[in-house]
Prior knowledge:
By secondary structure, the protein is an alpha+beta fold. Helix content is 48%, strand content 20%.
Amino acid sequence: MIARLRGKPVARTTEGLVLDVGGVGYLVAATTGALRKAEGASEVTVETYLHVREDVLQLYGFADAPERELFVQLLSVNGVGPKVALAILSSATPADLRRAIAREDAARFQAIPGIGKKTAERIVLELKEKLGTVVEAAPRATGDLLARDALVELGWTVSDAERVLAAVDPELPVEEQVRLALREAA
Length: 186
């Protein structure tokens, strides 16, 4: 298996990143973190995963080892293939995704294109046991999730709602958190 590549980023295509490693161009379907890491760099190291099917060999690239580890764990979930796992990892950091799994926050995954309610619930259910307990640097209250869900119902994306709510005191009542978030956005 090809676990890591270090080379010169020579192109960015719709399929991913092309890395020149010793004169050979490797096409790597990469997470947004890996693409950001390669942007403007003269040389970059990406962690990789080689996905083997009977008709194709596909390299997937990650900014670091935790992204790759979570990718492999996501592949173990029924109904999650490499493209969906890559989309999940491109939506947030591995730490944020692990916290969402620990909190049983299926809505976080439903917000990702290509993931429905049942798949999101399956991800949370199957990975919660595998990941064990996640120590949160800044635990978020249930009210925080309610405030986020309220903003999503108003048309916000999950990531935008979480970003704005990060600046709001989680001890406030849900209604006050939503009001402050709306004021912050305006």
